[in-house]
Amino acid sequence: MATSRSEGIFKRYERNPIISVGDLPYRANSVFNAGVAEVDGETLLLMRVEDRRGISHFTIARSANGIDGWRIDHEPTLLPDPQAYPEELYGIEDPRITFIDEEGYWAIVYTAFSAGGPLVSLATTSDFREFERHGPVMPPEDKDAALFPVRFGGRWAMLHRPVSTFPTTTADIWISFSPDLKHWGDHRVLLPARKGAWWDANKVGLSPPPLETEHGWLILYHGVKVTASGSLYRLGLALLGLDDPCKVIARSNEWVFAPEEPYELYGDVDKVVFPCGWLLKDGEIRLYYGGADRCIALATARLDDVLEWLRKHSEGFGV
């Protein structure tokens, strides 16, 4: 692995990007923002692919080592179905995958782009060949959602990012609870966007699903700063209570990862690093992220180093 130019703890794979649109076996505009799972000893990416109309679908790539040798489905794995699911009229985007051990399946929370704007939808699968759609679980405008893999007090929990049309509100990360993964309530703001000149002012959103550690649930989130040259997407960290995910134990005051390389700086949307999935293997985090809405890249970090970095860069908290 090669280090980035910054002093960040996430190290970019020296041969990034690991998947580009030219690697697909069919014509498309771009491939990015993949959900990640470990299935039958392999790394599986459920990739967002934007076709040449501008409509997104999902396609699977598999690799024995999670780095190279990707085997990509020869045709789209999961296409939007606006006839049966009208909320998918303008495509399906940005999947986040959580294995629900209690149910024995993977839950895929994704953004469906409806006529009324983006909303949160749910699908499940036991093999990534057959998928069962469960339809919308949050109304528009809402996105950047993922499930926790366990219940809290008998209820499932989900992080998501609703957006109000009220002009003075910020776009914050919320948490909601459900008895059945379909009906959601007890909504509350969990991680508000900061204000002013902060890197994560006005708009934040969840990146990969929560990662369980002995110290709490590790959260990687993106902050969007609007600059004179456009929006800038960077990543920060937070830690939530292991038994109470409504408790924010720590939140980084600096970003931990930012666009620096050409494949992150220039694309359909410039200056973007956007992960939808990560894996923890032998104490190492593998972070799979979209670069500039054009490609998929890989960065790694030791979990212990990430937690120590968060401890040092969080005001008033200890990890």
Could you explain how this protein is built, in words?
This protein has 319 residues and is mainly β. The protein has one domain (11-312): Glycosyl hydrolase domain, family 43 (Tachylectin-2, Chain A). 4% of the residues lie in helices and 47% in strands. The chain has two helices and 21 strands. The strands form five sheets. Strands 14, 15, 16, 17 and 18 form a five-stranded antiparallel β-sheet that branches. The longest helix has 10 residues, at 303-312. It is globular and about 50 Å long. The protein starts with 10 loop residues before the first strand and ends in a 7-residue tail after the last helix.
The helix/strand series, from N terminus to C terminus, equals EEEEEEEEEEEEEEEEEEHEEEH
- From the alpha-carbon coordinates, what is the Rg to the nearest angstrom? 18 Å
The biggest sheet amounts to:
5 strands, antiparallel
* Class by alpha and beta content: mainly beta
Q: Any idea what the CATH architecture is?
A: 5 Propeller
CATH fold-level name? Tachylectin-2, Chain A
Can you say what the CATH homologous superfamily is?
A: Glycosyl hydrolase domain, family 43
Number of strands: 21
> Residue-averaged pLDDT, rounded?
95
Write the layout of secondary structure elements.
Layout: E1 11-12, E2 30-39, E3 42-50, E4 56-63, E5 71-72, E6 92-100, E7 105-114, E8 117-125, E9 132-138, E10 142-147, E11 156-162, E12 173-178, E13 185-191, E14 204-206, E15 211-213, E16 216-227, E17 230-240, E18 248-251, H1 262-265, E19 273-281, E20 284-291, E21 295-302, H2 303-312
Antiparallel strand pairs: 1-21, 2-3, 3-4, 4-5, 6-7, 7-8, 8-9, 10-11, 11-12, 12-13, 14-16, 15-16, 16-17, 17-18, 19-20, 20-21
